[in-house]
Design a protein that fits this description.
With 135 residues, this protein is mainly α. The chain has six helices and two strands. It has a two-stranded antiparallel sheet. The radius of gyration is 17 Å and the shape is globular. The termini are far apart.
């Protein structure tokens, strides 16, 4: 884990991605996997790139499980580890905020997000099927 080297703001991380040639449009975002409001670290291991800044805003700080699932288990494991070490909330770590005193486990966050994502996809398929009956 790149603890010291990786500490930076999302704006600086975005500039680094641009410098490496990644095209980031104005409506795309670099965001925290474990939300800063939940103690997520300002660190590259807790950042991901999302092609939709509006989605990032709508997900806010109440959907770390969905964001963790979207970014993948391996990246989520890094985000959880660095946030537990370098979390942003003074005196509080993500374990204190997200899981109310229980150890913060990436697999638990991921599984919760996957369950929500799977339900959303089932609902969308059902909706699509119902709107296309009789066509």
């Amino acid at each position: 884990m790149r603890l010291v080297n990786g500490q930076m703001t999302t704006a600086k991380f975005r500039r680094q991605l641009l410098a490496k040639g990644l095209v980031i449009e104005d409506d795309q975002d670099v965001f925290h996997i474990i939300a800063s409001a939940n103690g997520g670290a300002d660190h590259v291991d807790n950042y991901a790139f999302l092609g939709n800044s509006v989605l990032n805003i709508k997900l806010g700080c109440k959907n770390d499980d969905i964001v963790g699932w979207m970014t993948g288990l391996q990246k989520l494991k890094k985000a959880v580890a660095v946030s537990n070490l370098l979390g942003n909330r003074k005196g509080l770590r993500p374990v204190d905020i997200i899981s109310i005193g229980k150890p913060l486990v990436a697999e638990d966050i991921y599984n919760k997000g996957q369950k929500a994502g799977d339900q959303w996809l089932r609902d969308r398929r059902r909706e699509f099927k119902n709107t296309n009956k009789g066509m």
